Amino acid sequence: MRVLVVEDDRAIGGDVERGLASAGFLVDRIEDGEGAWFAGDTEDYAACVLDLGLPGLDGLTVLRKWRGAGRGFPVLILSARGDWTEKVEGIEAGADDYLAKPFQLAELIARVRALVRRAGGHANSRLEVGRLVIDTSRMRLLVEGSEVRTSPLEFRLVNYLAHQAGRAVSVGEIGEHLYGVDDSADANAIEALVMRLRRKIGADAIETRRGFGYLLTGGAG
Amino acid sequence: MIARSLRLRLIAFAAIAIAVALWAAWHVMGRLFDSYTERRMAITLTHQGNALIAGMRIGADGRPRVDTSDLAARFGRRASGLYWEVLAPGGAARSPSLSGAALATHTHHRAMTVADWRETEIPGPYETDLILVERPVRIGNVTALVRVGEDDAPIDRARDSFAHEMGLFLTALGIALALAAWVQVELGLLPLRKVRRELAAMERHPDRRLGDSHPREIDSLVGAINALADARDEDLVRARRRAADLAHALKTPLAALAAQSRLARAAGAGEAADAIDQTLASAGAALEAEMARARAAANRGSPMVGVSRPGELIESLFAVLERTEAGANLVFDSDVPAGWSLAIDGETLAEIFGNLLDNAARHARRIVQIRAASEPATVRFDIADDGPGIPPDKREIVLRRGMRLDEAGSGHGLGLSIVADLIDATGGTLMLGDAAAGGLLATIRWPAAILTTDPPPAGSA
């Protein structure tokens, strides 16, 4: 599995490369923004570790260029600043995770593994419900053809409901699927989750069946 | 007090100037009235004197004789206030009104030559002063001095009454002028009041500037204030950037050092590597904390740069937290209205909410909720989780400088005490309590003045 590491500091870059290599990844290491942009655009990677402070093109610009060109591999951002504004900018530019320097190498490896698993571990399926399209291979949700950003939990909920094929699902069953337990204390959280999801995909896309639970209709498709 | 108030100073100077001018006018007009009436009286007396001279001759004994038939009847009544006297070397003649008394003489009679009438004032025979006209007259070879006088008491009375009425009129005029001056000062100072209002708005909304519709006279002042505000904004932005650069400059070598420590560990120097790692962790945490404190200090005492929309910001922070290990399985819920803006700059607000939400996410079981409320004097944000919470006796400790309860959660998130510092620097307060769901409730309150709300979009309920 190939991973791209973009880091201009040789000591850190070398350290990350050795760590990922010993975890079983095949690592390409690049030290400048221009080179990273080219590599990410032309090669297929399972994941990328991207430093933000790069000579030439900065990391955020490189990331935006990749995402603009439709390059969807998961990206873990490394940054020295570590402030929330930068984290928000990174996620909004299309990053999947964020790690502030100084970091523990073990944590970085665990995060890269999680990213790769999340991106590649799903059955390649595409479900259509009403005006919704659920793309499980890339964990994407489309409403009338345009992508809507969801949290992992929101995606799991809509994916589960979509697989119940027209059946209303009780709060207890949703809790068991999401959290592994059916606990009435989770009802509030599940209700809030459904509300948030409705705000993103339309209030009519999830109906409440009194006494039965929630039914995904996808709205008028 | 007058030295500090433009209004009082202008009004006081105007009042003094008006009072002095009117007082001088009152005096000068009294004098003019006096001299005018005296001159009128002297002319009348001259006519009487000319009539006297016409009917005057010198008798054989050298005494003057006067034909009184053409003279005013008052000369004939005793102490009537109208008198005449003719003095010749051979004797004198006097009006019956004098009852034989003589008019007071003055020393330079002998020096007088034949000329026109001369006007003077002398003490009268009956205790009041007289206006007197006199002239020498030559009849044959005798020179006689002809004098006609009249009591000036009526003039004094007329002048007193004139002065009284004039005084009343001038006082009324003075009051009217003072009122006009006050109105003028108020109107003149209106633009300054506008500047004061705009400055107050600038304090609450630092992105605002003074308008350009001010009078020319204070244009340069307005320009200077705006330039100062711009410069301060730039300074603040530069200071932040410098702090961020410093962090970058220090954190990268720290990360490099961490790499060296791993090499050392791989080479068998495990104990040394442990020590280095420990030092690195505390150095990194200290660096992060001091950065946050520097930011708080930069904010403190200076109005905030910029305005942020907390509704959007919180959703963006949710998107970050949903990607963290702790946040991936949590529901993040916010009811902050989309139309709200706060007069706090975006980076500071991101640190405040980011760290509080991060803290809540690391302890929550299922859900992190943020609730906003606009109260009469404050705007309130409640950040609640359904985790274990913090016991009441420990809450004060976590808000104390340099304290954090979970030393394990390094790297991410600042201590609550630093968040409290940041909130304090933006004019707010942070309080910890119990959430309804059992976890920690962090309540932020800011003064209501920093909140502005957009009208809801058309068509919304």
Written overview of the protein:
The complex is a heterodimer of chains A (221) and B (461). Chain A is α/β, with parallel strands linked by helices and 221 residues long. Chain A folds into 2 domains: 2-120, Rossmann fold; 126-216, Arc Repressor Mutant, subunit A, CATH 1.10.10. Helix content of chain A is 42%, strand content 21%. Chain A is built from 8 helices and 11 strands. In chain A, the strands form 3 sheets. Chain A has a 5-stranded parallel sheet, sandwiched between helices. In chain A, helix 2 (33-42) packs parallel to helix 3. With 461 residues, chain B is an alpha+beta fold. Chain B has helices spanning 6-54, 153-204, 219-266, 270-299, 310-321, 346-363, 392-399, 416-425, and strands spanning 56-58, 64-66, 82-88, 91-94, 118-123, 129-139, 142-151, 331-334, 340-342, 367-374, 378-385, 429-434, 440-447, 451-453. In chain B, strand 1 and strand 2 (64-66) form a beta hairpin. In chain B, helix 1 packs antiparallel against helix 2 (153-204), helix 3 runs antiparallel to helix 4 (270-299) and helix 6 (346-363) runs antiparallel to helix 8. The longest helix of chain B has 52 residues, at 153-204. Mean pLDDT of chain B is 84; it is low at 404-413. Classes of the chains: A alpha/beta (221), B alpha+beta (461). Chains A and B meet through helix 1, helix 4, strand 5, helix 5 and helix 8 of A and helix 3, helix 4, helix 5, strand 8 and helix 6 of B.
